[in-house]
Description:
Residues 23-98 form the YdbS-like PH domain. By secondary structure, this protein is an alpha+beta fold.
Amino acid sequence: xxxxxMAEIIWKDRKRIFFGLPWTFTKYSLSEDRLFISTGFFSxxxxxxxxYRIMDVSLERKLWQRMCxxxxxxxxxxxxxxxxxxxxxxxxxxxxxxxxxxMVEDERTKKKVSSREFMDHERDEFDDYDDHDTY
Length: 135
């Protein structure tokens, strides 16, 4: 898994195909503070996103996924290189989504990050002006 061995991995899985078989070259790993996605065989691409940068997490389970015990976790991210991404066709998707969601909240609390920090800079300027105007 390349550079992922440095972080202690809490969860890992592969993107799966029909019938839940892990015959793909997409691997997912989760550490205490980062999510890693590795894709490819001949040419490997390794992406990571810091958990505190994930804004929203949702679960999608199409009929064929439910029949195979799979699901796709959709993540909305403030990370410039990853943006929005999906953790596709994984086993125990509901449990993984809950674990990821809780870990994201824990990291955001630990780093004292609120969603306001990802808002437009212009909005913050107006908020400051309104605060001074209330005297």
